[in-house]
Structures are given as C-alpha cells and as structure tokens.
## 1
Amino acid sequence: MYSIQPVDTPEFTDIHWRKLYGLLRELKRKHKSYCADRSPGEFRKRLLKSLSAEPHYYHSCVFEGTAVVGWINLHVRNQGTQDQLVYAHLDVAPEMIPNRLAGTLARWVLGYLEEYAAPEFYLPVWRTGLMAMAESWYGEFIACCDNNVLHRADANRDLIAKWLRDLPAANPGLRLVFTDDIDDDLFEPYVALFQQGLYDMPEEVESGMSRKLDPDELKRTIRAERETGVIMHQALILDSHNRLVGVSDVLVNRKNPGEIHQLMTAVERSRRGSGLAKWLKAAMFDYLEREVEGFESLNTWMRAINEPIQAINKKMGFVVERTGREYKIPRAGIEAFLEKGPAQTPGE
Ligand SMILES: CC(C)(COP(=O)(O)OP(=O)(O)OC[C@H]1O[C@@H](n2cnc3c(N)ncnc32)[C@H](O)[C@@H]1OP(=O)(O)O)[C@@H](O)C(=O)NCCC(=O)NCCS
C-alpha cells in the first residue's frame, strides 16, 4: 500500500507537488521539520533545479495510496572513488512511524546502495520514531546534532556589539569583508578552508565517514541556488597578504528572507582561539540586520559535541530548537532488516 515515486518525472504532477508541499508545511508546523518556506511553485523550481544540477542526487515522495505521507532523498558524493559518501534525508508523517513504512523505505535505499556498490549510508533524523527506525535497520549512532536558531529579537546585542568593537582591534592585520558572489581567485582558498573545517568537526563515535568536498559540486550548488534566487553571502577574514583565514556563510532566499540558513563557520587551524569565529558570526548577524529586509531568524545545524561553536552560539542568543541523531547504516543492516526483521534494541 506504500509506494515511492521520484519527483522529477512527468508522472509527478502539479497535484503531487501541492500535496508534497502541504506535507512539508504540516511537518514544519508540528515538528519544526525542515521546509523551504516559500510557495509550492518556488519549492518545485528549486528542488528540480538542484536535482538537474547534481547527477547523483535523488528525491522521491512516499505515498500511501494517493496520499503523500513523506519524502526521502539520497545524495552520492565523490561517486566511484574511495571518498564516496552516500547520505540520505527523510521525513514522514508522524503517524507512519516507527515501523509501518520501514520496509518500503529500506528497499528504496537498498536499490541505490547496490547501484553504487556502497557498503553503508549516513542518515540524520530528528524524531524519536525515525531514530527507532534507523536503529531497527541496524544503524550505528555517530553523533547528536542540534538545530540552533537565533531569533533576531532574542539576540544578545550588547555582546555582539562588544565583539564587533573589540575583536578587530585584538586582531590587527586582519580585515573582514563581505561578498555575495565570491571571486574566482578566492574560491579555491574558500574550498580549502571549508574542507579543513569539515575535517576538524568532532564526532562522538569515529565513523570513517568521508568528508571530502567536491569543489565542482559546491560551485554547481551555489550556482543552482543563485539561479532560483537563493544567494550565498559570506563574511571572509583575510590577512595582510590577502590569505583567507576565516569564513562564515549563509543562504538568503531573496523571495523569503525571514529564515536564513547559516552553513559553515571555519577558522584556519593556526588562528583558532583568537576570537575570529566570534567576529565572523557577530559581523554576519550585523550585516544581515543591515542588508536583508525581512530577516527574522538565523538557523544552523551542528553537532552537540562541537563545544567552541556551541559556546559562541549560546552567548549570541541561539537556542536549540531540535536535537537529532546521525546514524551510519550498513548495507548488511538493511539486508538483515529485510530478511530477518528489525534489530533488537537493548532492553527488548
Ligand atoms: C569552531 C571554530 C570556527 C571556532 O573558531 P575560533 O576562532 O577558534 O573561535 P573563537 O576564538 O572566536 O571562540 C571560541 C570560543 O569557544 C570557547 N571554547 C573553545 N573550546 C571550548 C570548549 N571545549 N568548551 C567550551 N567552550 C569552548 C572559547 O572559550 C571561546 O569563547 P570565549 O573566548 O568567549 O571564552 C573553529 O574551531 C573551527 O574552524 N572548527 C572547525 C570547523 C567547525 O567545527 N565549525 C563549526 C561548525 S559549522
């Protein structure tokens, strides 16, 4: 009675898009789940754009009969290399979890794991029912993730102003600039710093997950977002030789700038502990207040164990709105689930 259908096919019609959008709104209202907060038409345009930009990105909709009850996507990075990474996201209507749907979803994922000869995939989940499903697939816990949100009205303005006053003075020889269209000559250093930040992000359990960035993919993603009106803005700190030593970036949807997503904040290893991340984050907040009409909140995702960035966020006024978990799910676990049934969790 459940079925899964790709969204980028002629069979996925206007009615399906509207239903999928309706489900996303509902999940957001009830569970603060992710939702592209824009019209159904723009949501469709942006999703189709990112699917066409990325050859190894798949997005499907979950049906129960004709009702849309969920979505699932899967992305393969560095395909076919030793750095291959298979990452999935999913969300379903709460009444469908934990296990009623698990078999259908497991078969969908298994098809891709076979196609890409992948021994495992990674899955972040934000609700207990979905965590139970990941565990029933023999998923291994990797890390807790926090969704931190700074509501503009709750920002610690005095502290932000103090950081903006003190930190440039405490770091002579460094300058901070903003861009909403990074120069070609800075793109490579930006990728290198982003990559270093990814490598240095802590894990609770060593998972072996590939963190290798694909610079071409990053470029394509930024371009595809821009073409649908979602602009990446960056705060960059440069030294006196114009070397990039710090970055913080956000995505602003021009048509709906209320909820802004902050992506990576990274400081070059040798410069950490000098207040540069505080400077970057304070400056970005100040910039968004000045430059983006309608800005209401700043939203960011991070591992709970990442103490320096959690400390900065807390001081600025960010609050944790959702806590999730990230799992590594072995292909053998999915196969065992389909053949023998759910893994027994401790205590059962
Ligand atoms: C996280 C990161 C950006 C911080 O950059 P930074 O320039 O060293 O940070 P700052 O010097 O501005 O501030 C660090 C703050 O965290 C605090 N801190 C550092 N380690 C901490 C710990 N273990 N527990 C609690 N607080 C800690 C510091 O005390 C400091 O605050 P304070 O000066 O007010 O006391 C940097 O470590 C980095 O690039 N990490 C890799 C990428 C990453 O994890 N990015 C964040 C996720 S997007």
Note: The longest strand covers residues 140-151.
## 2
Amino acid sequence: MQDSFTGFPTCLCGARLPSEAEWVALLGCHRERLRAFDHLVEVAGECGIQADQDRHFFVLPEDEVSLLEAAGEPWSGLGRALRNFRRLLPLVSLTLFGFEPAGEDVFENNPPRLVRVGGGVEALAFEAPDASIYKFFFFREGGYIGSRFSYARGEDGLIQATAYPGTYRQLLEKLLLVSRIGVPTEVVGISPEGVMIVKQALGEPLPQGMDTSTVLPPGLIAIPSRFLRADRDHPRLYFLDGEPWLVADLHARNLVRCADGTLRVIDLVAGAWPSELTRGDGIMADWMARVRLDPAAGALPASPDDEL
Ligand SMILES: Nc1ncnc2c1ncn2[C@@H]1O[C@H](COP(=O)(O)OP(=O)(O)O)[C@@H](O)[C@H]1O
Ligand SMILES: [Mg+2]
C-alpha cells in the first residue's frame, strides 16, 4: 500500500490492523531506525562532530556532508550513515499534509484533508479521509520533544519517577514501545523544522474515566508501590528485548478499542528502567529477576493500582 499523503509504502489504512508479517516488519523498521541513528552519532563522533541536542542530527539533510566525503574515512562513512538514517527517517514537508510551515500557528486550522481529533502536550492528532490517524509531535523550548522519565531516590527510599520532555531518540523508543504493546504506529518522517510525523491505526475511544488498570496489555508488570512512585497513571515494568522499561500514563484517553475488539495503547510515557538506582536493592532485584522470567509471577491479582 502507498500512503495517500507521502506516497511512501505503508501497512496502515484506517482502522485496519496489519498482518502478523507486516507487524513484525514494522517493529523491525523501528529498531533499524534507532540503530541507524546510533550509528550516525557514533561516526559523527569519529569525525569530531557532536551535538548538545539530538535534534540537530535528526534534521540533517542527506547532502549535508557530501563535500567532505571526498576526504575519505571517516567522512565517507558519515555520508553513508546519514543517507541510511534519512532512508529510515525521511525529511517530509508539512505542506504534503496541507499545512503551511511558515505560518504563525501551523496547526491551528485543519488543512483540507485532515480533521483534528485530539492532542495536547506532545502531539496533535488528525484523521485523514481514509480514517488513518496522523500525529504531529512538535518540539518544545530547548529542542525537547515527546516525553521520558527521570528518576531520583526519595528520602523514604522510594524511587520517584517524574515525566519530563524528552529527546528525539527517546520519542523513537516510545513509538517502538507503542507499536510493540499497543496500536501499530509508523514513523512517517520528520519535517525540516523538526516536527515528527507519525501514522497510526484508528481506534475507538474508550469511555472517559474508565479504569484501565485491569485491561492493560499482557507483559506489563504491576510495580509494588513500595518500590516506585510515578507522577503518571498505572506505572508498569516492561521488558523490551530483554531490557527493563518503566511504562506509564495508561489512562482511558491513551487507550482505544481496535478493529479486532482488543483494547490497545495509543500513547504512553516511558523511560529506561533506572537500573543504577535499583541494582543495590536486594528485594527489588529479586522481584525483577522473578518477573523477568514470568511477568505474571510477581503480579498480585488484578486490582486497582492503589491496592498494590
Ligand atoms: N489511533 C487513534 N485512534 C483514535 N483516536 C486517537 C488515536 N490517536 C490519538 N487519538 C485521539 O487524539 C488524542 C491525543 O492523542 P495522543 O497520542 O494521546 O497525544 P498526546 O500526546 O497529545 O496525549 C487521544 O486522546 C485521542 O482522543
Ligand atoms: Mg495522550
């Protein structure tokens, strides 16, 4: 299938869920994009190029280093790494979607083929004529985008997880997590201004205020409240490719009912688990080792979070 705005290959159209094979390919694409970004940063480092914000790398045009490539390695490697990253995260003009990037408030009015369906702090969501959802993640002051968790150990010994604006790489990680445990989500590209453009299958909203704690996806492990406190709803531990993550903000507005009847996550706040804070804690390490082998092992019977 071709995306109706960009012409790029896509496995998403309206509420349709991808086949098993398409889903696997979609997740592979998310992982490959992250690897390509890391490789780009690594080779740039070999060339003596560093950036205080990863946004600078995210918006680098494909031909930015072409003149330097003639100098041989590591510059030619940088050119290859940049082209590979751009293949996986193309620069896409917002004008393709009918927006006027030069305007005062780019997303204020619906463009001809998109209808705003929601959004707030991180992204604006629009529905297209084919019922696909497009999200535009805008960046904030300092070049931050999306969200992440930062951690500190409180005086009571508890780990406090606090949601903060994140980096572009952390947004790619979050979108991988959403695709893995929630609604299939494609990264369409990034606008030259730095707006991340994402496509998602359409779902049906859930009743406002519905308690989602008992309908969360399998593999999300309830965290005993004596271990960690988060400033977002329903904090859960999740192992992605063997690595522990904190995943939260799983309230009713961040879940939808999909075409196959399942309830799935469309949005979340995630952070790599703070292993440096938990390593020395024997009880927590023991719990993590148990639930890593069997996510159901440490979970108490389904109950609202505050009873854990
Ligand atoms: N895949 C989707 N299907 C249906 N509605 C959606 C979808 N994605 C987003 N929305 C609507 O847009 C709102 C905001 O989207 P979300 O991804 O949660 O962005 P934000 O980061 O701003 O919370 C949702 O609460 C929902 O009403
Ligand atoms: Mg949300």
Note: Residues 253-254, 267 surround magnesium ion (ligand 2) (CB under 6 Å).
